[in-house]
Write a sequence for this structure.
């Protein structure tokens, strides 16, 4: 199964992608994680990306596209989390998939009102293994420690109110046009993300099980 999770920052797409990965055994590709890794390693794409990420802006398409092309080329199934984020990226993804004779099964849009997004991401705690927690809504069992791997949790540099406003604005300007793009292709599904994690996942799982049966 090949799917895209489309959602504003702080809507929980990373958390949902992790759950889908565990249940359906599909590779989870997060461009945000890949970029943060590149920044940490100080690679050329990482150095290019950092200044945009710090401001809550999108990294130039060519940087992200090179990364994603490499990641998906040998994969049969995948969940894309955070890609595509512009119409240009969506069209290039179509081309890459066409060249490999693959097609997208579905695009799941997770909707969350703006005021909830800031609250959610400001309290977010991340782990390098991919797990994501929240200080209030989804705390780890032991404070500051990942339940899954035991590593110390950290706060992402761009998870602060000021950068969040900029990320939400960027999402509306650059990423929202994708909703129409995938709706027109007939593969868009929308889920209400303003509910607890299990409930959102339950809805997503229903959509995916239906696709698996077809
Ligand atoms: P995320 O972890 O998905 O919230 O992404 C964190 C940051 O990485 C974003 O605010 C962007 O600066 C950058 N980023 C992630 N994915 C993309 C993408 N597909 N296109 C451009 N920039 C991206």
């Amino acid at each position: 199964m090949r799917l895209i999770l489309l959602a504003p920052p702080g809507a929980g797409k990373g958390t949902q992608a992790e759950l889908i990965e565990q249940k359906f055994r599909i590779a989870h590709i997060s461009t945000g994680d890949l970029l943060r890794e590149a920044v940490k390693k100080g690679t050329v794409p990482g150095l290019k990306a950092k200044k945009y990420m710090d401001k809550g802006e999108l990294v130039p398409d060519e940087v992200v596209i090179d990364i994603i092309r490499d990641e998906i080329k040998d994969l049969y199934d995948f969940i894309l989390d955070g890609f595509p984020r512009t119409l240009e990226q969506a069209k290039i993804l179509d081309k890459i998939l066409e060249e490999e004779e693959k097609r997208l099964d579905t695009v799941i849009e997770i909707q969350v009102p703006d005021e909830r997004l800031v609250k959610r991401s400001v309290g977010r705690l991340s782990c390098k293994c991919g797990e994501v927690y929240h200080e209030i809504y989804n705390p780890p069992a032991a404070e500051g420690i990942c339940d899954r791997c035991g590593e110390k949790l950290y706060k992402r540099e761009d998870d602060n109110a000021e950068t969040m406003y900029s990320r939400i604005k960027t999402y509306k300007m650059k990423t929202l046009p994708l909703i129409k793009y995938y709706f027109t292709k007939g593969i868009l599904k929308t889920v209400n993300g303003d509910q607890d994690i299990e409930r959102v996942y339950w809805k997503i799982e229903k959509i995916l099980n239906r696709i698996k049966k077809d």
In short: The chain has nine helices and seven strands. Residues 197-213 form the longest helix (17 residues). The chain has a mean pLDDT of 93.
